[in-house]
Structure formats: C-alpha cells, structure tokens
Design brief:
Length: about 280
Amino acid sequence: MSVVVKHAMTVDVEDYFHVSAFENKITSTDWASLPLRVEKNTHRLLELFEQHDAKCTFFTLGWVAEHCPNLIKAIVDRGHELASHGYDHKRVVSMNPKQFREDVIKSKSLLEDAGGCEIVGYRAPSFSFNTNNQWAYEILVEFGFTYSSSTYPIEHDLYGVPDWPRFIHKRDEGIFEIPIPTIRDGEVNKGIGGGGYFRLYPYFYSKQRIEKYLQQESAPYSFYFHPWEIDPEQPKISGVPLKSKVRHYINLSRMEDKIVKLLKDYQWSTMQDVYLSGSSQEEK
C-alpha cells in the first residue's frame, strides 16, 4: 500500500489594503474607511478546502481576528490550524524588540481569544526576518511559539536572505524555522512557494517547478497565498508604483482556478502535521 505524501497549504489571512506594497499609500488610519473583503474571500477558501479534503494553516493577522472573530472560529471549527501573522502587518524590519514583543502579545491574545486554541506558529509579514533581527526568535520562544515560517532564502527587493537555510531546521533558540521552498538554478535559489510567482506563471509551469523540487529534495513542499488573490473585484488602489500594481493585480481572475488544480493534484495538510509530526523534524 502506497503512502500518501502530504504537503503544507498555508494562507496569510490579510486584506488587500494590508499588503506591504501599498504601505506608503494606505495607512492603518485609512483601513476603517475601506471595504472589508477578507472575511468573504477566506470563507470561499474554506469551502474550496472542504471540497477537496484539504487542511491548511491560516497565518492570520490579529487585526483580522479583532474585526472578524466569527471567521477565526470558522477556521478552527473546520479543523484547520490557526497561526499568527502579527497584528497589523508591520514588517519586523521596522520594529525594535519592544515593539515586536507588544505586537506578538497583542496578536496572539486576539487569535487565541477568537479561536479558543493555543497559537504556536508564526509567520512574519513579508518574510521580514533577517540577520539584523534574529532577536525576534527569542521573543517568539518566550511566548510559547514552537515554529516560525518567516524566511524566504531568495534575492528579492522587499525580503529574502539567500544564504540562509532552505529547509526546516531547529535554531539555537529552540524554535523550528520552516523557510518557503526554493529550487536551485546553478548557485541561485528560485522561489516556488506561491504568491505572485504562482499567479504570474501558467499552472503547468508552476507544477513543473514543484515536481522538480519534489524529485530533487527529500523534503516536504509548502505553498502560500492570500485571500485577496482570488478576488479580482477588489477595489483598485491608485497612486502606487507600476511594479507594485503589476505584482498585486496580475492574474487575479485566474487564481482560484489555479488553486483548485493545486488542490486536485496534491494532498494538503497543516504546517504542524507536515513538518512537526516526528520524522519530518530532521534537518537537511
């Protein structure tokens, strides 16, 4: 009897106005005046996951838990993992240890109150852990987190530490770090974990890249995306740089169909189930 290999599906639960690409155009004081779409879009994802018998880790903003507590309850009630994405999507590179500690405490409390469960997973907004803020891991351990998925070992203008480990590893602080997956192109890491890369390329090409990773590496695969990526009807933000517009809006109308194909082609579970269930904790 063959063993079914499961991979980790993850969703960063934030709304279209939370994204780092718009942070110089939209501030937190503007959010209350903008249409809230994260609840509807995330419920649609819950429906898709249920239809395809998939489980997921929802890295969720504390701000979303504060404004949509029923959504948080629905995530937990359907058997998914609830994890933290910080409070209001501030990148860790913009915070000092005191500010980060306050952000962690606030977001964790809101999520646990709304979900009625312990929060042990964390993902930094925009994968904003790097060599200059490794103190953040000590703070996560202090508040009971057992794993983080906050690094993307690629070269990118907004994030990334290319020479950091590519696979799950236990850090000296006692916490597991689970990087976003990459494939090797010579000496260069190329991102294959989801998000804009997945929307940009045709599905067959994204699948080829995933298959290459699975053939070359004896490691699980994980995928990430956002609820706003299946929402082509979201309000368009004006006055932002062309690069930001392209990154955010490209192929939104095609994303849901691509996600359905991904759900059909692979078996999906939570980060804890895939990476922290025993044998998968071995370091590369």
